[in-house]
Design goal:
The complex is a heterodimer. By secondary structure, chain A is mostly helical. Chain A is built from 11 helices and 1 strand, in the order H-H-E-H-H-H-H-H-H-H-H-H. By secondary structure, chain B is mostly helical. Chain B is about 70% helix and about 5% strand. Chain B starts with a helix and ends with a helix. At the A-B interface, strand 1, helix 3, helix 4, helix 5 and helix 9 of A face helix 15, helix 16, helix 17, strand 6 and helix 22 of B.
C-alpha cells in the first residue's frame, strides 16, 4: 500500500464527516420539533443556512483586531484536522512508512485548540456577551476534558494504545462488549457527549439568551462567511465526537477493505450509529431542562466517578 | 574548536560581560549593551558546545580540571549528556534574553542610574555564567559554589530593580527559602563526599553505592526537598510568585525559564545518577513521592495562576505548574526505571518527556515573559484589568504572545503538546504495565494532567483576552505602541524554537539520546521514540503491544493546508464587502467598561474551586437619598493561598512563640548564660562521654 493512500483515506473520511455533519444537526432539530409536536424546519435547513451565510458580507466590530478575523479560519481548520483523525468507515493499520493519523489524545487536543481559539475570538469584540460565553465555555472545557481523557485512558489501558484505528482493530471489531468497565465508561461517555456537543442539560444550542448561552454566546459577534466557518465547525465537532464514541465503544461494522460494497455497508452502519446517538441527544434535549450553570460540576462529576470506576476495575 | 576550548570561550565571554560594569560610570548605556553582548556571546558558545557534545561528540564525558583554589578539594568540570542538555536549555533562553535586554532596560527604566546599570550588568553575567557552569560542574564543591553564586546574583537582580518595600520583602523570602534548600543540599553532598572520600562526582557515586537503602532514601528525600525549594514545588513555592515578577522581565524569563530547570537538573542528577542504586529498580517510594509532588504542583500551580491579575505573577504561577508536569514525567520514569538490566522503553519515554518539557517550558515561558515585558515597558502597568486593546497597538507582540499561550496550554501543533503527549503515554501505558495501586495512581495523574491543560487554556484565554483584546481600559494602554525591533528579535528566536520543537519534535529526540541512554542504560530516546523515522513519534514499546504513534508533522501540515483552504474560500470576492461597526451594547454607547474583565472571566472557576481559594468579596454601595439609586459601587475581592495560610502562618506562629519564649529566658545577666553553657556541657558529656 502506498504511504499516501493512508492520508487519502483520512481525507476521504474527513470529507464524509463534513458532508454529513450539517445533516446530523438538521436531523436532531427535526426530531426535537416532532417530539415537541411542531413541524420544524427541514433537515436540510443547516445546509441552506451555511450557503446563505457564505454569500453574505461581513459586519465586524470596529474595536476588534486582526486576531478576530483569523479566528474562524483557524477554528475550522483545527476542527477539520480533528475530523481527519477519527476513523469513520475504514479501519486499517498504518502501513510501514506511513505517517500515523488517529491518536485520541491528539484529536481531543485539536478540539481543545478550536475551543481556545473561539474563546479568544469572543473576547476581541469587547462585548460582555462574548466574554461571558467564553468564560463559561472554557469552564465547561476544564470540567469535561479530564473526564474525556479518563474514558479514553480506561480503554487504552486494556488495549495498550490510544490510536483510535489500532484501538478499534484490537478490540476485534466486536459488537458492544458487556464487561462492566466498558459499560461504565460508555455511561460516562454519554454524559460527556451532552457536554461536548453543547446540548441540554449543559448548553442550549437553540438560543443565545444571556442566561443559557455558552457556545452560542461566543459566536455572537461573528457574521457572514466567518460565522459560516464557526457554525460548520460546530456541526463537524458534534459528528466527530459521535464518531469518537462509535470508534471507541462500537467499532463493529467498520471495514478493513476498500471495496465499494464493503465501504457502502460500513457507511450504512456508521449512519445507523450516528442516528442512534442523535436520537439519544434529541430525547434528552426534549425531556430535560437546562441545568443551572453551577450545578454542572455535579452533573459532570457523575461522569468523572463512573470513568474512574471503569479505570479502577480495569487496572486493579 | 574543541568543546573544552568552547567552554573556556563561554566563561571568558561571561567574565568580559561582567567586567563591562566598570565602564558604567562613564558610559552607562554602552556598559549595558556590552554586558548583554557578553551574555549573548557566552550563550552562543555554550549552546554550540552543548550541541556538539549532544550530537556528534564522544560518549565519554568531557572533563576539565579547574585551578586548585582550595587545598582540600580539586575542582573540575565534567560535561556528560545530561549536563550538555541543560547547558543547551540555559543557552537558548540566555541568548534571546540578551538580545531583548538592552532595549527593554532603556524603554522600561530610561533614568536608570550608572550604579544600578553596573550592578545589573555584573549580576546578569554572574547569574547566567553560574547557571551554565553549574550544569557542567563535575564535583560537589564547584556545584555548591556555582549554586550559591546563582542564588546571590538572582537575589541582586530581584531587589535591584526598584527600591520598593515589596521587592525587598520578595527578595528576603526568596533568599531565606533558597538557603534552607541549600543547607539540605549541602548536607546530602557532604555526607556523600565523606563516604566517598572525595568531592568528585565519581567518588560520590562510589560513596553512595555502599549506602544502606534507608540512608539512601533519607538522603534522596533531603536532596529532593532542597532542590524542590528552589524549583518552586508546592508547598515550597511561596517565594516564587513574588520573586520572579519583581525582576526585570528578561531576568524573570531567565529565572522562570532556566533557574528552575537548574534546580530540576539537581533532582535528575541526584535521583537518577548520584544516589541511584547501582543495579535494580529505584525505590518505589521515590517515584511515588516525585509523581505526587508533581501532580499537586501542576494542579495547584495552575489553579492559583488562574486567579492572578498581575500578568507576570500569573506567568510565575504557571512555572509552578510546569515544574509539576516535568516532575510527573520524572516520577513515572523513576517508577519504571530498572538499572543494570535492559531499560524499560516506557521509562526512557517518560524521562525523555520530562527532559523535553524542560526545554519546551524554557522556550515558551521565556517567550511569554518577554511578551509581558513588552507590555510592561510600553504601558508601565502589570494589572491586566487596566490593559486591553493592545492587539491593535502592538500586533507583533500580541501574535507572539498568543503563540506562547497556545504552546503553554499544551495545544497542537506547538511544542507544549509534544512533551505532554509523551508524558500522557508514559503515564497511561506505564500505569497499565505497573498495575495495582501504582498503575491506578499514575493513570489518575494522567487525567490530572488533562485537567491542568484545560485550566491552563482557560487561564491563557483570560490573560491574553484581558491584556490584548477588546478596548483599552486605561490611558496607559491607550497610548501603547509596538516595542523596538531588537526586543521582537529576542521573542522571535524563542517563538521559532516553539514552532520547530512542536512541528519537528523528532529532531529534539536526537538531543535526548545521550542523556536518556546515560541515566537509564539501554537504547536512548532517539532509538525508541523516533524508531519509525524522524517524523513519527512512538510512545511505548516499539513493535510491542504497548505503543502509540503520532506524526505531529503530518497533523501540522494538514492544519496549515486546511487553514489556507478555508482562508481562500472566505476571501473569495463577494458583492457585499466588509463593514466596520461598533459592537452592539444594547443601545448604549460602547465603552471599555462593557469588556469582560479578567476577574469576571475567572469567576465561574473561582466559585467551582471555592474550597481551595476561599474567596471573599467586599461590595460597598454608595446610595443617595433614595436607596434604590446606587451612585457608586466598590468591589473588592481576594483569594488566599492555602499553603501560605495553613503551613507558613502556622510555622511563623511557632517560630515567633519559640523566639518569645527564648527572649523571656534571656535575662541579660552573665551568670544565667554561664548556667546555660554548663547545663549544655553536662548534657553533651552524658550523651557522648560514655563511648
Amino acid at each position: 500500500m502506498h504511504p499516501f493512500e493512508h492520508i487519502a483515506i483520512a481525507l476521504g473520511q474527513m470529507g464524509l464527516i463534513v458532508l454529513l455533519a450539517p445533516f446530523t444537526t438538521g436531523f436532531i432539530q427535526k426530531l426535537k420539533a416532532r417530539l415537541q409536536c411542531r413541524t420544524g424546519a427541514s433537515v436540510w435547513q443547516p445546509y441552506r443556512d451555511l450557503v446563505k451565510l457564505l454569500r453574505k458580507g461581513t459586519v465586524q466590530s470596529d474595536s476588534a483586531s486582526a486576531i478576530f478575523r483569523a479566528v474562524p479560519v483557524l477554528v475550522l481548520a483545527a476542527t477539520l484536522t480533528a475530523a481527519a483523525l477519527v476513523p469513520v468507515v475504514v479501519v486499517r493499520q498504518a502501513p510501514a512508512g506511513a505517517l500515523p493519523l488517529g491518536d485520541a489524545i491528539l484529536l481531543l487536543s485539536l478540539l481543545a485548540l478550536a475551543r481556545f481559539l473561539s474563546a479568544v475570538g469572543a473576547l476581541d469584540a469587547g462585548g460582555a456577551f462574548g466574554g461571558m460565553g467564553a468564560s463559561r465555555e472554557m469552564t465547561v472545557g476544564v470540567l469535561v476534558e479530564p473526564v474525556l481523557m479518563l474514558v479514553v485512558f480506561s480503554v487504552a489501558v486494556s488495549t495498550g494504545t490510544t490510536d483510535l484505528g489500532e484501538l478499534a482493530a484490537r478490540r476485534g471489531l466486536a459488537p458492544l462488549s458487556l464487561h462492566a468497565p466498558d459499560l461504565l465508561a460508555l455511561f460516562a461517555m454519554l454524559v460527556l457527549l451532552l457536554a461536548e456537543t453543547g446540548r441540554i442539560p449543559v448548553d442550549n444550542p437553540d438560543t443565545h439568551l444571556e442566561l443559557t448561552m455558552l457556545h452560542e454566546g461566543m459566536l455572537l459577534e461573528h457574521s457572514g462567511p466567518g460565522l459560516a466557518c464557526l457554525v460548520l465547525a460546530t456541526h463537524i465537532k458534534q459528528l466527530v465526537v459521535m464518531a469518537l464514541v462509535a470508534a471507541v465503544f462500537f467499532p463493529a461494522g467498520m471495514t478493513a477493505s476498500l471495496a465499494p460494497v464493503d465501504l457502502a455497508l460500513a457507511l450504512l452502519v456508521f449512519a445507523g450509529k450516528a442516528l442512534l446517538l442523535a436520537v439519544f441527544l434529541a430525547l434528552v434535549e426534549s425531556s430535560y431542562a437546562k441545568l443551572r450553570f453551577f450545578r454542572l460540576p455535579q452533573f459532570l462529576g457523575v461522569g468523572f466517578l463512573t470513568a474512574f470506576l471503569a479505570l479502577a476495575l480495569r487496572i486493579l | 574548536m574543541t568543546p573544552a576550548l568552547g567552554l573556556g570561550v563561554m566563561a571568558a565571554c561571561f567574565a568580559a560581560g561582567a567586567l563591562a560594569c566598570l565602564m558604567a560610570r562613564w558610559a552607562p548605556r554602552s556598559a549595558v549593551v556590552i554586558g548583554h553582548l557578553g551574555v549573548l556571546a557566552g550563550a552562543i558558545a555554550g549552546g554550540g558546545v552543548a550541541l556538539a557534545l549532544l550530537i556528534g561528540g564522544p560518549v565519554e564525558p568531557l572533563r576539565i580540571a579547574l585551578p586548585e583554589l582550595f587545598p582540600f578539594a580539586r575542582m573540575s568540570l565534567a560535561v556528560d549528556g545530561l549536563s550538555a542538555f541543560f547547558l543547551l536549555v540555559v543557552s537558548v533562553v540566555a541568548a534571546s534574553a540578551a538580545l531583548y535586554g538592552p532595549a527593554y532596560l532603556r524603554a522600561a527604566e530610561p533614568h536608570k542610574s550608572a550604579a544600578s546599570s553596573a550592578a545589573h550588568v555584573f549580576a546578569l553575567n554572574a547569574f547566567v555564567g553560574s547557571m551554565a557552569l553549574l550544569c557542567c560542574a563535575g564535583d560537589a564543591l564547584s556545584f555548591l559554589l556555582f549554586w550559591e553564586v546563582m542564588t546571590l546574583a538572582s537575589y541582586a537582580l530581584v531587589v535591584a530593580e526598584t527600591r520598593s518595600d515589596e521587592n525587598a520583602r520578595a527578595g528576603l523570602l526568596y533568599i531565606v527559602m533558597a538557603h534552607i534548600g541549600t543547607a539540605l543540599i549541602l548536607f546530602v553532598f557532604l555526607t556523600l563526599t565523606e563516604r566517598g572520600h572525595g568531592f568528585d562526582f565519581s567518588a560520590m557515586r562510589t560513596g553512595a553505592a555502599a549506602l544502606s537503602p534507608a540512608w539512601r532514601s533519607a538522603l534522596f528525600f533531603l536532596g529532593l526537598t532542597g532542590f524542590a525549594a528552589k524549583a518552586g514545588v508546592v508547598p515550597l513555592h511561596v517565594w516564587l510568585p513574588y520573586a520572579h515578577p519583581a525582576a526585570p522581565s528578561h531576568v524573570s524569563a531567565l529565572m522562570s525559564g532556566v533557574m528552575l530547570k537548574v534546580a530540576l537538573y539537581g533532582i535528575f542528577r541526584t535521583g537518577f545518577d548520584l544516589l541511584a542504586p547501582p543495579s535494580g529498580p529505584l525505590p518505589a517510594s521515590w517515584g511515588w513521592t516525585v509523581l505526587l509532588a508533581g501532580t499537586v504542583s501542576a494542579v495547584i500551580g495552575v489553579l492559583y495562576a488562574l486567579q492572578q491579575h498581575d500578568l507576570k505573577r500569573l506567568l510565575a504561577f504557571h512555572s509552578v505548574e510546569n515544574v509539576g508536569i516535568i516532575l510527573m514525567g520524572a516520577g513515572i520514569a523513576m517508577l519504571l526505571a530498572d538499572r543494570g538490566r535492559a531499560a524499560s522503553p516506557l521509562a526512557t519515554l517518560a524521562l525523555a518527556a520530562a527532559l523535553l518539557h524542560c526545554l519546551n517550558h524554557a522556550t515558551f515561558k521565556g517567550l511569554l515573559f518577554l511578551g509581558a515585558g513588552g507590555v510592561l515597558c510600553r504601558t508601565h502597568v502589570r494589572n491586566m484589568e487596566e490593559l486591553g486593546g493592545l492587539a491593535r497597538r502592538m500586533p507583533w507582540t500580541a501574535w507572539l504572545f498568543l503563540l506562547g499561550a497556545v504552546a503553554i496550554s499544551a495545544l497542537p501543533p506547538l511544542n507544549g503538546f509534544v512533551s505532554e503527549w509523551m508524558t500522557f503515554q508514559a503515564l497511561v501505558l506505564g500505569g497499565g504495565k505497573l498495575g495495582g495501586a501504582s498503575g491506578l495512581f499514575s493513570v489518575l495523574a494522567a487525567s490530572m494532567l488533562a485537567l491542568t491543560g484545560g485550566l491552563a487554556a482557560a487561564c491563557f484565554v483570560k490573560a491574553f483576552g484581558a491584556t490584548f483584546l477588546g478596548r483599552p481600559r486605561s490611558r496607559h494602554a491607550e497610548a501603547a505602541r509596538e516595542v523596538p525591533l531588537s526586543m521582537l528579535g529576542g521573542m522571535l528566536v524563542l517563538a521559532i524554537a516553539c514552532v520547530v520543537l512542536g512541528v519537528l519534535p523528532g529532531f529534539a529526540m536526537l538531543l535526548l539520546e545521550r542523556p536518556t541512554a546515560q541515566l537509564l542504560g539501554g537504547p536512548g530516546a532517539s532509538q525508541l521514540v523516533t524508531v519509525h523515522g524522524p517524523l513519527v513519534l512512538t510512545g511505548g514499546e516499539p513493535g510491542g503491544a504497548l505503543a502509540t504513534s503520532i506524526s505531529v508533522t503530518a497533523v501540522a501540515g494538514l492544519f496549515a493546508g486546511f487553514a489556507l483552504l478555508v482562508w481562500l474560500v472566505r476571501a473569495w470576492p463577494r458583492r457585499a464587502g466588509r463593514r466596520l461597526e461598533p459592537t452592539w451594547t444594547c443601545g448604549m454607547a460602547p465603552t471599555s467598561r462593557f469588556d469582560f474583565t479578567a476577574t469576571a472571566f475567572a469567576k465561574s472557576l473561582r466559585l467551582i474551586f471555592a474550597m481551595l481559594y476561599r474567596p471573599h468579596r467586599k461590595v460597598e454601595r454608595e446610595t443617595g437619598d433614595n436607596p434604590y439609586v446606587v451612585k457608586r459601587l466598590h468591589y473588592g475581592g481576594d483569594i488566599v493561598d492555602v499553603a501560605e495560610m495553613n503551613l507558613y502562618r502556622r510555622l511563623q506562629h511557632l517560630v515567633t512563640t519559640l523566639s518569645t519564649a527564648v527572649r523571656d529566658r534571656s535575662t541579660g545577666r552573665i551568670h544565667g548564660y554561664i548556667g546555660f553553657v554548663l547545663g549544655t556541657l553536662l548534657v553533651v558529656l552524658i550523651l557522648y562521654g560514655r563511648g
